[in-house]
TrEMBL record:
Protein name according to UniProt: HTH cro/C1-type domain-containing protein
Record InterPro entries: Cro/C1-type_HTH, Lambda_DNA-bd_dom_sf
UniProt-recorded Gene Ontology molecular function terms: DNA binding
Sequence ranges assigned to domain HTH cro/C1-type in this UniProt record: 22-61
């Protein structure tokens, strides 16, 4: 199952794609693309392609990403269609708390 077609539109009409969410989760955890690649057992270029929307992760990969970045709440919000801007605000608030 691919999650490519799941997109969240926020008030500005722009689409927030899964790669944007994945990048924010990785960065919130403080991981580099290289570190994430090691955890996911893929190369850094694959991580970059996911985050930039040039490659769509399958559901298993997305779930593993969420587990590695401890971002289960973000994934649930995304999959349930909560507006992208609210997800990003949540991620940024969590990041501020951990800094």
């Amino acid at each position: 199952m691919r999650i490519r077609h799941m997109r969240i539109s926020h008030d500005g009409g722009l689409e927030m794609k899964v790669g944007t969410i994945m990048r924010a989760c990785r960065e919130r955890k403080g991981y580099t693309q290289e570190h994430m690649a090691g955890l996911m057992e893929v190369d850094q270029a694959t991580i970059s392609r996911f985050e930039n929307g040039r490659q769509t992760p399958d559901l298993t990969t997305f779930v593993e990403w969420v587990d590695q970045t401890e971002s289960q709440e973000v994934a649930v919000a995304y999959l349930y269609g909560i507006k992208g801007i609210k997800i990003m605000q949540h991620i940024m608030n969590q990041r501020e708390v951990s800094i």
